[in-house]
Amino acid sequence: MAGRFAPRTPALPTPRTHGDGTRTPTGTPRAKTRTWTPPGDAFELGLVLGPLRRGPADPTFRTRPDGSAVRATRTPAGPGTLRVRTAGDGTVHAEAWGAGADWLLERLPEMLGASDDPAAFVPRHRLLAASQRRRPGLRLCRTGLVLESLIPSILEQKVTTIEANRSWRHLVRKYGEPAPGPYGESPDGRRDSRMYVMPDARAWAMIPSWEWHKAGVDSKRSDTVVRAARVARRLEEAVGMEPEPASARLQLIPGIGPWTAAEVLQRSNGAPDAVTVGDLHLPGVVGYALAGRPDTDDAGMLELLEPYAGQRHRAVRFILLSGRTPPRRAPRMAVGRIAHL
Questions:
Q1: Cα–Cα nearest to 235, from 328, 147, 136
Q2: Cα 261 to Cα 274: distance, rounded to the nearest angstrom
Q3: What does pTM read for this prediction?
Q4: Which residues pair with 33 in a beta bridge?
Q5: Cβ of 22: how many Cβ atoms within 10 Å?
């Protein structure tokens, strides 16, 4: 579920700061910059961009001690690195490097929720009203990129989050490329201290079967990734569609169902009503939070969320942010390593 986790990440090395505010080490092109002021009074960068991070050591996403977020991504214009921070006056300052820098800066407001409408959400439960008051800066991001959310979502199918994040790290570091700008460089020579841009669609489709196995990805998930990569251009068109036809477009790929499609559209399209059905834990969390029923199934979850039709994804985000979860009644699912088989 987008936005469920907020893991801590190691700090990145700080590049040299120039007099004009751009930051870059020797030999690296200076960043392109943009400043934007979010509408409204409340804006919380961590809540907006948090769903894009896949675990505490995601090579495509890092946070820094100053509260800024750094994202390495593959845009239609090419690889790009984006660093975003919020100033004390509420303005957002962004720096970007690489061939995709202009694309990232042009779409910065939309990525940070400029097209989102938080006022459309009306809490009808005391818990959600309290959660909204505590975290008024929640906005739904819209990356405008399908494949970068689709592939890690496929890797998360039917396995623990730890396993999926480990597979994502392995594949991105091996088949991706260092992020443009200072964050793709390693001052200590360690590969895991760099940031990486994920592979392009052709590279995903060309990964051999034994490398998927080494990454801990079974053939069902790897075949789904390959099928999606081969029609990546058509899948990216879902960004310009309404949520329902966009979901249908994604689900034309065998191996992609409602769960995966919702996880993608929550990030790529900023869909406020995309509910993650088929999740192992989410129905129980929603049922416990709204009705005290931890054994709630998908049908019961959708019934409880019916008053929030059109804003059900946002309602779930506020439930998760409330921290009200059912007590654990069984051990955690064992973390597997199929690469050892």
A1: 147
A2: 9
A3: 0.89
A4: 95
A5: 16
Instruction: Using the predicted structure, report yes or no on whether residue 144 has a pLDDT greater than 80.
Output: yes
Residues contacting residue 197 through CB under 8 Å, at least 6 positions apart: 60, 72, 73, 74, 79, 80, 81, 176, 177, 178, 179, 180, 184
Q: What is the pLDDT of residues 58-75, one digit of tens each?
A: 999 999 999 999 999 999
In 3D, which of 275, 279, 259, 267 has the Cα closest to residue 315?
275
- The region that residue 314 occupies, defined by phi over 0 for left and psi between -120 and 50 for alpha, beta otherwise, is alpha
Q: Which residues pair with 94 in a beta bridge?
A: 34, 84
Which tokens is 192 given? Answer: 């895991």
pLDDT at res. 7: 40
Please tell me whether residue 27 adopts helix, strand or coil conformation.
Answer: coil
Using CA atoms, how far residue 334 sits from 99, 154, 163, 331, in Å, is 42, 19, 10, 8
Rounded CA separation 271/51 (Å)? 13
Q: Ramachandran region of residue 279, left (φ > 0), alpha (ψ -120 to 50) or beta?
A: beta
d(CA 227, CA 217): 15
Q: 88-93 long-range contacts, Cβ below 8 Å, gap at least 24? A: 90/37, 90/38, 90/41, 90/43, 91/35, 91/36, 91/37, 92/35, 92/36, 92/37, 92/38, 92/43, 92/45, 93/33, 93/34, 93/35
Which pair of structure tokens corresponds to residue 34? Answer: 């943009």
| 275: amino acid identity, one letter | V
Which tens digit of pLDDT belongs to each residue from 116-129? 999 999 999 999 99
Q: Which long-range contacts (CB under 8 A, 24 or more apart) does 100-106 make?
A: 100/73, 100/74, 100/75, 100/76, 100/180, 101/31, 101/32, 101/180, 102/32, 102/77, 103/75, 103/76, 103/77, 104/73, 104/75, 104/80, 105/32, 105/33, 105/34
